[in-house]
Amino acid sequence: MAPVKCSHVKEHLSKWLTWPLVGLALIPLGGCGEEFRLFYPKGPVAAAQLKYTMIDVGIMLLIILPTTLMLCLFIWRYGKARKAAYDPDWAHSMTIELLIWGGPIAIVALLAVFTYESVIETNPYDPTVLRAPAGTQVPAQAPLEIDVITTDWQWFFIYPKQHIATIDDLVVPQGRVVRLRMTSTSVTNDFFIPQLAPMIDVMPGMQTRDAFSSDGPGTFTGFSADFSGAGFSWMQFSTRVMSGDGFSSWVAGVQAGQAQPNRGALSYAVFQKLAHPTLNIGAKPGYFASVDTGVFNRAVTDALNGLTYPVPADLTEKMAPDSGPSNQRRSSENGKGS
Amino acid sequence: MPVHLQGPWSFLFGRLTLHAIPYDNVIILFAFTLAAVAGIAIVLPVLYFKKIPYLWREWITTVDHKKIGVMYIIVGLVMMFRGFFDGLMIRTQQVLADGPHSPHFLDASHGYIPPYHFDQIYSSHGTIMILFAVTPILTGLTNVIVPLQVGARDMAFPYMNALSLWLTAMGAALVMVSLFVGDFSDAGWSGLIPLTELPFSPGVGVDYWVWSIQISSIGTTLNAVNMIATIVMMRAPGMTWFRLPVFTWTTLSTNIIGLTAFPVLGVALAMLSCDRYIGTHFFTAGLGGNLMLYTNLFWIWGHPEVYFLVLPAFGIFSEIIPAFSHRPLFGYTTMVAATFAIAGIAWLVWLHHFFTMGAGPGVNTFFSVATMLVGVPTGVKVFNWVFTMYRGRLTFETPMLWCLGGLFMLLAGGLTGMMLAMPAIDYTVHNSVFVVAHFHCMVLLIAYAIFGAVIFWFPKVFGMQLDERSGKLFFWTFSTGSILVFVAMFALGFMGETRRLDYLYDPHMLPLLIIQEIGIGFYGLSVLIFAWMLFVSLRNRNTSLESDPWGTSRTLEWLTRTPVPFYNFAVTPQINARDELDWRRRSGLDLSHPDRFAPIHMPGNTMIPILIGICSFGLGFGMIWRIWWMAGGGLLAIIALVIFRSFQHTPGYMLQPGEIAAMERRTAASGIIAEQPSRPPLMEAGAH
Ligand code: HEM
Ligand SMILES: [Cu+2]
Ligand SMILES: [Cu+2]
């Protein structure tokens, strides 16, 4: 057997390089700014999620930390060079074996309790954290209903009560519960606003729901989290939380056609035109001063009846030659045809 | 054409046109040059030294489980290298494409890879690493080691073993071909549905993905049958169930998973193919299809698959840690119980891959708690390894370093896995790079085990040890890379970075992306050091090794000579204890070798497996490009070959005691790289 030589300079160098570099990797974590979105929740659902993250990690550390320490200790203590006690036979101990089964089982049992609690609290169909705490008055305002439709690769937000709609711009009043009904005309997407709303899939021919509310005004980026094809990386939307009054006047503005770019009325026919695959680089918003009722339901039924908006091959494979940087917004309608 | 296809089709070439060859893409041109140079560097010496007959007789047509195992590992390492390049390109694209003012090169609007290409790169990265790198390497390791550990002459079905290898290799070949002819899938390694349906993926990419997996997974399934049969039926006398080495136990449980899970994948892919080829509606959103069915089927395979990979890695830890702690494994029985507990629970947790699909609280809670339960046996295993070191006499040879590194990876991956198991947390990080970092911890742990295993068992197979000094350097650079890339990736997950982005919206991510890029640089360095390690080891090789070159190994495979002769054991060993070699060492029997031999019946070579492999490649390629005559021809040829084979008499040959005695004295003559003289096949009457 080759004796172990540890004299090599390079090897030592890299060994000692490892730890400073790890430290380097941790610096950004220490300087936790707001860009660590998950640590800065801006609404009750996201706050509950952060709370359970902390609980889960805390409970897990109860077992991970001692194990890690023990591992390090044994590696250090029982190195051959240290000449510690050596027992070449010991391989079984009932006590230890009971403990190492019992410990994890207890931890999992504890976690299971919190899991159940957390599932109920953040259930996207009816998150109990959004319910008014027992004893207080029922909130004066009913939830704001918004229908969400994803296409390749844009977000449509329809406000059925307000009869307006937007592309890639979700505007909500602060403090009010927002309930979303979501579907897709193309592939599966995943609705996600890190500081506000949990990730929930958006699927064609199906309806899913999500709900959130926000603590205060602000602008947050929302994402499609589930890969959906060529335009996926640009499929963001902005989420603007306004005061109640601000929201009302924004709605009035959109209704009056003042929000720019105003794209007129959203009938199902107009929607179908816009639903063709479009690379929306830079997530350019759009506004509709009025909306026909039933766009959402027709999108669902049409998908169920087999309607698809096929993606032209040149958008999926040879996206060149005209996908260069100058091409900001490209739709399969513009001469490229399916 | 039963379905509507975009683009031209002709009878002779199907969808294949010159346009499919991306000769105008610099990146692919570079890859092609690299592959061509490597190819020439291999082919020229082979031709020059007239080694083709040797390769054909000793390797390509072999049915020897050790050679097959080695070829599996070579295929896996080549694919791992390709997968590494993909990873390098992904990281480089992301660091270049952060924020609206990021630079752009070539024909990308940000970074240097346009989306259609980037999406293929990460999809092939995942597919390759999981199915064509780690899976074949582990299959190869179990192929080499398990028959030796149970004291068998070979696998239960040597011919089928060769067939499994060639099917896997041809699947890998299809993935490689997709780089130069056409495109690979851009729908993720998990085949996101309905993105993989024809309207959304109109090209051949998804078909490449489907057929490469379909063909290789048949190989994996056959191998599972073979392994199970070998372990159950071929154990040497005295090798009772509770004397089985733990690596063999984990191989058994893993292959039970393989045998039961891979058919699910096969069926899911076949249904997807029906959608794409004949216009059925299994997984479409409309017309009665159910896309969630695909997601369920995929993960009913997919989750057991990740345990299919990790259990052999656990087995490797269980062999190497005792060897270098100079102690028996702590808690053998609980280890075995934990192995089967993991394998069992692995079947009950698949829904945790899509908590976000909107299932109700009851369903989510059930799968959440089931997932957490996996943590229990996993934790037990960690404790067992830790207590194996307690009161040990630890030495830190490279295999041990890889195992200890792997333990830390396991702790990180386990902690984050338990976070993901809670739906409320998963809602914030599912489909984010946090998940990517979690499973890379786990997959890295497997990679660590693999490197440890290759170094540990290398002398047994090749009769020489790998260089320790460069091996350690390799370990430290690789680990530095791992830490830099994945600590930063966890942090990015908390920033809300979603997966699979080829353009990042948030300039704040840049510092972390740069750290990742530095990390991938360390990985690159470690690849070079790996090559250097092989070179140095070959240059300084010492080929006169003891049976057990480490001096502290414990199990049966170290009993036979090093390098292991092609007939494994000159005399079938009689097993006396759980750690047989350790028992013999203590009884002073480890140096005694048999001097009286009985004739050994060996199986003969066959070229049928490689022929079936080539035909399956034709079948796959024909189906991908819809060249129906080629696909049909391939299928018919396979059927003909199978029929031919079943009427063929394969008596094998006899090794006579005199010959064995001679080879036992000159071990190099019987090692797996040695060329064997051709021996006359047995006459019918002599076969038994
Ligand atoms: C303690 C054990 C483990 C737990 C509790 C656990 C938990 C999870 C959960 C809940 C997810 C889903 C995350 C999501 O998509 O939102 C996940 C993903 C994943 N895990 Fe684990 N895991 C464990 C061990 C492993 C092991 C041993 C491996 C592999 C060898 C592994 C590989 C993966 C992979 C590949 C994915 C992501 C698949 C994808 O979406 O592409 N995990 N894990
Ligand atoms: Cu990877
Ligand atoms: Cu899983």
Can you walk me through this structure?
- The complex is a heterodimer of chains A (338) and B (688).
- Chain A is α+β, with helices and mostly antiparallel strands and 338 residues long.
- Chain A folds into 2 domains: 36-83 and 92-122; 144-306, Cupredoxins -  blue copper proteins (Immunoglobulin-like).
- Chain A contains 7 helices and 15 strands.
- A 6-stranded mixed β-sheet of chain A has the order 8-5-1-2-3-13. A 5-stranded mixed β-sheet of chain A has the order 4-10-9-6-7. A two-stranded parallel ribbon of chain A has the order 11-14.
- The longest helix of chain A is centred in the N-terminal third of the chain and has 34 residues, at 44-77.
- Chain B has one domain (18-686): Cytochrome c oxidase-like, subunit I domain (Cytochrome C Oxidase, Chain A).
- In chain B, α3 (65-96) runs antiparallel to α4.
- The longest helix of chain B is centred in the first third of the chain and has 35 residues, at 115-149.
- Chains A and B meet through α1, α2, α3, β7 and β9 of A and α4, α8, α9, α10 and α11 of B.
- The complex binds protoporphyrin IX containing FE (HEM) and copper (II) ion (2 copies).
- The site of one copper (II) ion has 5 residues of chain B, from α8.
